Amino acid sequence: MGDVNKVRTACRQCHGGCGVIAHVQDGKVIKVEGDPESPISHGTLCSKGLSVTQLAYHPDRILHPMRKTTQGWQRITWDEALDTIAAKFNTVIEDYGPESIVIGQGTGRDYESHLYRFANQLGTPNVLTAGHMCYVSRVASTLVTLGNLPICDYAGGPKCIVLWGCNPQWTNPDEYKGEGFWRAYKKGAKLICIDPRKGFTAKKADLWLQLRPGTDAALAVGFHRVILEEELYDREFTENYINGWDAFKERVKDYPLEKVQEITWVDKELIRKAARMYAKTKPACIHWGVPTEQTNNCADCTRAIAGLMAATGNLDTPGGNVLYVNPPTRTVAEFSRHKDLSKEQRAKRLGGDQYKLGARVAFITPKVAWEAILTGKPYPLKAGLLCGTNPVSTRANAKEVYEALDKLEFLAVIDFFMTPSADLADIFLPAGTWLEQNHVADNWKRHGYVLARQKCVEIGEAWQDHKIFQELGKKMGQEWWDTVEDGLDYLLEPAGLTWEEFKKVGYLKGEMVYHKYKERGFSTPTGKFELYSTVLEKWGYDPLPKYTELPESPVSKPELLDHYPYILNAGLRTPTFFHSANRNIPWLREIRPDPIVEIHPDTAEKHGIEEGDWVYIESPRGGARERAKFNDGIDPRVIVAEHGWWYPEIKEHGHGWDISNINMLTDNSHETMDPAIGATNLRTCLCSIELVEKGK
């Protein structure tokens, strides 16, 4: 046995960034541990990150390119795989135009810059991401409101923290690490938790607001009502830096607390108490999660919550929600060269005329892609490339997703394993894990850092995603660098560093300056924080935030209640899985062997359900089987179900994609989506629940 070499790198098992020390022996990673010198995770590492060796060396991992034939999957070379894709894409471009190719990604593996560079040079405006309802939708909504995404300044010492629809210690989402929140909380910060489910953080909170799932926008406006009534707002900020403050005050008059209580199910006095605590305890920050985005109120909710930060003087102030300064590296947009996509091609973006805010951040909502494949309207999609995504399991209306991908004339997939979505592909390209890549990590985030993710090993013939886009691009005559590392030199050029030098530095941090708006205003048309959005007004949308009733709820669809009496709150997070990933990782599957649906004991008793029973959850669109777990911390009218389930152990085609997939129940029709961004109402619908008969 050789010596153990320790390599400092950065995790990407979920949204990533945690510092890691990888122990490498004889060309193999034998274990990983948290890096105590990491500036953002301080030595902590979650269950997902710790299990990476079981991912990297999994016996089912595919480590060479493959082509689907009439006899099944056949091993091929990288040249054969890339030549096949390039030839098919060139044929589609010649016959239909580049817009008939869709490029798709999931939550990403930090390859966004390279994916978009490839798509832009290809000439397709149709990039399909999770961003229509996850994070990028939050970015888009705050860009038109204040020009940047406000982030909790946990290191700045908040005295009050509002956790709004998130569980940072289980999910470590986007800019955040659970450790940062916990550190601030342990220093004595007051905690307000807004969540339909009483989980770990709700039990720790000073105040827990158990709202009806999906009504976050109404609650946010309710907070504003209290702040206005009791004059708890920051007069200097509201008078000098907000566009539309008087108009917004008029809008808020439409939301007396009695109405907000009726909508949200939260007692009006509890709303008042929470709004007071947030507004009076300085500094205070709001840490929001994707449930606030995955409804038809996505943009309005984001803008109303950001408005709370502004109105109370908690914006870009130490311990509040701040606008971090990026390190001196090239941005994702600059690297991607959005100018490579012509104005003519941008105009062809599917759904661009309808979902203008989504078009502003260069993505399409999935529904328009499935429609273009299935109907050929407004023009057909003929070919696709999906990277790090499993939309059959993670997108709304799974039946339609499956049907569309199955009908697509040509599909290539980049992944680690054969998933339900990859099963439908013609070419499979094996991706390298984060242990197998060099990258300037976290360069898409807005927390002020970039990190050195160093390649620790090479496994099989797998390539890191960045190399795949680069080499495929070269096959198609695109402009790229000789090596991935040459591209990283370009990314780092403004910092005066090469990749080899940056690896030794480990990370860069932007030099933080607070209250930047006092010197240069906000990056909006008025130069102010736009509670009244001139951009949305120009596009024909309501310029002021409001609450719109959910498309399928006891209020909007009372006629369904006889058959579907419960509200499904889909998307329950766990500390083990990352959306549809990790169901085949032994350590993690042992912790969570079956899909879980949480039911109030009273609801279970009504249906003769005992804890651990398999139950069938059904909506007007379809159903899924999950195992019952009791939780008296949810409303009896609500059930809370996990998402992303498929069964890697089922080796037949499809891997049981439709057995426990909660997206068999969810809807993606246009009338249910956010009108500006195209966010899918993925979280809430009406459902029924019944015991699955024993033996079935």
Task: Provide a compact summary of the structure.
It is built from 27 helices and 27 strands.
Explain how this protein is built.
The chain is of the alpha/beta class. The protein folds into three domains: 66-135 and 330-442 and 449-509, 3-Layer(aba) Sandwich (Rossmann fold), CATH 3.40.50.740; 147-325 and 516-539, Dimethylsulfoxide Reductase, domain 2 (3-Layer(aba) Sandwich); 558-691, Barwin-like endoglucanases (Beta Barrel), CATH 2.40.40. The strands form seven sheets. It has a seven-stranded mixed beta sheet with strand order 5-4-17-16-15-6-7, covered by helices on one side. Helix 4 packs parallel to helix 21 (465-475).
Q: Layout of SSEs?
A:
Layout: E1 4-10, E2 19-25, E3 28-34, H1 47-50, H2 52-56, E4 66-69, E5 72-75, H3 78-96, E6 101-105, H4 112-122, E7 127-128, H5 136-146, E8 151-152, E9 160-164, H6 168-171, H7 178-186, E10 190-194, H8 200-204, E11 207-209, H9 216-229, H10 235-241, E12 242-243, H11 245-252, H12 257-264, H13 268-280, E13 284-288, H14 298-311, E14 321-322, H15 332-336, H16 343-346, H17 356-360, H18 366-375, E15 383-387, H19 391-394, H20 398-407, E16 410-415, E17 427-430, E18 439-441, E19 449-453, H21 465-475, H22 484-492, H23 499-505, E20 507-509, H24 517-520, E21 529-530, H25 534-539, E22 566-572, H26 586-591, E23 596-599, H27 601-606, E24 614-619, E25 622-630, E26 638-642, E27 684-691
Parallel strand pairs: 6-7, 6-15, 9-10, 9-13, 10-11, 12-21, 15-16, 16-17, 22-26, 23-25
Antiparallel strand pairs: 1-2, 2-3, 4-5, 4-17, 8-14, 18-19, 19-20, 22-27, 23-26, 24-25, 24-27
Helix pairs in contact: 3-21, 4-21, 5-14, 9-12, 9-13, 9-14, 12-13, 18-20
